[in-house]
């Protein structure tokens, strides 16, 4: 049997180094990293010097200052992940089984301690753990098969090992007690799953991919992401901050709260009914050739229990426009992968060419990952429109990295819709393997983790950014749209109250309190 190369939407780390708009313009400090598609990290954002244009460029963003301008980074859906030995007892049952609670025996007991904090990632078609996280989850020794499986990013490939069938379980950070113990009663998951155990995926700054729960899990649950309710936990002396997340098999979003519904479509081979791995006799044991059947592929979305798994991802149609609209420059439709694991967004080089983007980018990105590093350009698009029930969402001055990535539908992706579009909205991810799935969005909320300078903490530096924009409107030179937390075009007492709540929520707890000493 021929194995195909599995492309994860990332497993790489992104660094952005951008020059100044003008002499003396402030730099964004180095930070722990902004996730871009399963491990891409942006560590600094400063704009490039740009040469004067021969002719003025009339921009949508300049004409519609009232439209929200997404930041470079949105939220990252952090979750607790743990494993067990639960698998099917039937020789030819390769299909996963959903579990509404933790079942089985921990691979690395006790499960309350030996869990990791990873990503709930619709951009990944597999469940995966890398490096030390694979060790903590018990994906070692007899729990691994002899089957290697290559994964790749934009810079190269590496071999991972397919696990024996096991259980993978997840919950939001709220399931982690103040003492760092995991409450197993709050977990949901799936069992009889062949995951991937990868070598460490990291870059020079120490950032790494820990663990990922992908579409074989996510497609069968509804996920509620409350951006305005941050969770802060400490696990093995590491601090993690992310929105409150609830994973459930039954939830009906209230249309009075979630006023917009963005349609999502499952892309790839169809129809999809389940998730399964594909097994083959253990060729290393000729005396027992029809004995144990080893997983030859990881568990992927599949058409049926005994079919070759093909994977799949969720897509949304996004309208993009650069420059003055007109008969020769109309809104273009881009089919973008909806990627909860990406804090930032991507467009392909093909789409960049269709938008007539200039050769000189607005910023450059250094991408580090499997196989090495390479640079990628980045641009601010003038206008983006996402159609939805309840009314379209419109944005101006939207940052995108230009990068080509394989699509589960074949060819390259038009782009990746990252969570920076929804940085200030609560989100309900309601996927489905048949028919229409939806992203349900609330009206803008004063998001509770307000890191205005992207350095990974909320502190006095963020207050200085806020104070510099105090009482400004879009017509003022000091206007900073990131400080307009209610999108009402004035930075006033309401925004100050929201920022103060965020700041105080993070103070008094290490490492934030230590920064004031």
Short description:
The chain has helices at 60-63, 131-136, 215-218, 349-354, 460-468, 493-506, and strands at 6-7, 12-16, 34-36, 40-42, 78-84, 97-99, 116-120, 128-130, 144-152, 157-163, 166-172, 188-193, 196-198, 211-213, 222-235, 238-248, 260-267, 274-276, 279-281, 293-295, 300-302, 313-321, 332-338, 346-347, 363-369, 372-386, 393-402, 415-417, 427-430, 437-441. The protein is mainly β and 517 residues long.
Describe this entry's structure for a reader.
With 517 residues, the chain is mainly beta. Among the domains are: 12-65 and 313-441, Beta Barrel (Cathepsin D, subunit A, domain 1), CATH 2.40.70.10; 460-516, no CATH class. Helix content is 8%, strand content 33%. The chain has six helices and 30 strands. It has helices spanning 60-63, 131-136, 215-218, 349-354, 460-468, 493-506, and strands at residues 6-7, 12-16, 34-36, 40-42, 78-84, 97-99, 116-120, 128-130, 144-152, 157-163, 166-172, 188-193, 196-198, 211-213, 222-235, 238-248, 260-267, 274-276, 279-281, 293-295, 300-302, 313-321, 332-338, 346-347, 363-369, 372-386, 393-402, 415-417, 427-430, 437-441. The strands form five sheets. The chain has an eleven-stranded mixed β-sheet. Strands 22-23-28-24-27-26 form a six-stranded mixed β-barrel.
